[in-house]
């Protein structure tokens, strides 16, 4: 989901 | 993972390593703003607390650990090991004027009102302005060593490449994060003046001296 996509970035 | 994201991350990593290498090799941190480095260490610590809650990939975790470790190693070199070479008289930017508004903004504008999400948002806002003490130091002394300008160029390029990454992700994955995008634009804009000087002077082999 969106939250996971955000936390994937550094 | 797209090419912009990967080159952005590598540029970020390169910047951090250039800085550590410069300080270690010259045994001096002159020209480096300890205050900006305090802000960066705060940024990584606040953002990468998700190491304990979300596992994304080995790449992701390793990079986060390197960023945090390098940030604290840099602080150690500036404030302990090579303390005598630290330019404290020129490094006078008041960081509370950045910390307080970023903290307030993170409390108001965030994705979710939880401790981790507010800290994540705070780190995004703070990162966008964390370079200001360093740019202030360069403007105060009117010059930067060539290696310091390489550091700044790599660090500035990283967020600019992330902007391309977000454009890519918007078109191909339908994903966008307005908080990160707006902060990323602010962050990149702050480097524009420096980018101009870097391209017109440093690449041509001249030292980075500000026009009087």
UniProtKB/TrEMBL annotation, chain B:
PROSITE patterns noted in UniProt: ER_LUMEN_RECEPTOR_2 (PS00952)
GO BP of this protein: protein retention in ER lumen; protein transport; vesicle-mediated transport
GO CC term (a single one): endoplasmic reticulum membrane
Topological type in the membrane: Multi-pass membrane protein
Major place of residence: endoplasmic reticulum
Subcellular location as annotated: Endoplasmic reticulum membrane
Swiss-Prot/TrEMBL keywords: Endoplasmic reticulum, ER-Golgi transport, Membrane, Protein transport, Receptor, Transmembrane, Transmembrane helix, Transport
GO MF annotation list: ER retention sequence binding
Pfam family, one: ER_lumen_recept
Regions that span the bilayer: 62-80, 92-109, 115-138, 150-168, 174-199
Signal peptide feature range: none
PANTHER family, per database record: ER LUMEN PROTEIN RETAINING RECEPTOR (PTHR10585)
Entry's family note: Belongs to the ERD2 family.
The protein's name in its UniProt record: ER lumen protein-retaining receptor
């Amino acid at each position: 989901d969106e939250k996971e996509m955000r936390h994937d970035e550094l | 993972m797209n090419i912009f994201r990967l080159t952005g991350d590598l540029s970020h990593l390169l910047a951090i390593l250039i800085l550590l290498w410069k300080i270690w090799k010259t045994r001096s941190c002159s020209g480096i703003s300890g205050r900006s480095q305090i802000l960066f260490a705060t940024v990584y610590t606040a953002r990468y607390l998700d190491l304990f809650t979300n596992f994304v990939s080995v790449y992701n975790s390793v990079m986060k650990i390197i960023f945090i470790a390098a940030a604290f190693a840099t602080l150690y070199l500036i404030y302990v090991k090579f303390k005598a070479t630290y330019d404290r008289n020129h490094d006078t930017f008041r960081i509370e004027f950045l910390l307080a508004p970023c903290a307030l903004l993170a409390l108001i504008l965030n994705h979710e009102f939880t401790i981790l999400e507010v800290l994540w948002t705070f780190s995004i806002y703070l990162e966008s302005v964390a370079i200001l003490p360093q740019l202030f130091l360069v403007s105060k002394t009117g010059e930067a060593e060539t290696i310091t300008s390489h550091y700044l160029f790599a660090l500035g390029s990283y967020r600019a490449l992330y902007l391309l990454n977000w454009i890519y992700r918007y078109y191909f994955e339908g994903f966008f994060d307005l908080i990160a995008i707006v902060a990323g634009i602010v962050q990149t804009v702050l480097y524009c003046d420096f980018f101009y000087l870097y391209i017109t002077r440093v690449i041509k082999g001249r030292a980075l001296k500000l026009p009087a």
